[in-house]
Amino acid sequence: MSVDEGVHMLELELAGLAESLTAPRLGECLMCFANRMVAEFGCDHTLRWSRRYQQLQAPQAYGLRRRLLSQGICCDCDIFARGWDVTVATVVDRGTGQECWPPEVTGCRRVRRGSTRPCTLWAPRGGVSGRW
Description:
This protein has one domain (23-124). Helix content is 41%, strand content 8%. It is built from five helices and four strands, in the order αααααββββ. The strands form two sheets. A two-stranded antiparallel sheet has the order 1-4. Strands 2-3 form a two-stranded antiparallel sheet. α2 (30-41) packs across α3. The mean pLDDT is 88. InterPro entries: DUF2695.
């Protein structure tokens, strides 16, 4: 195997790994996905993760970007800063001192494929319309 072939194989493997790390989980809602991606990879001040979710899970949801922008949500972290909040009370982890979900919350409460609605873990903040 030549060096070029080795580099090409490595590039393909890394691309596959990136694809799997940033894919929505089965039944995962937009809010849980965006929250997980922002926590793991940060926000680049665009709707990158929302757009990825829409492309992979809800390709018919053409109005998602427009709905987010109409509510003042211009990037993925704005979803949580301005639009949506978790509905369960957080607890403080004794070991790390960080706020986290209580143990009985194991993640997304699931939505049907094709939906951009949040699961029941999320509620709209004051100025956001709950109609999705």
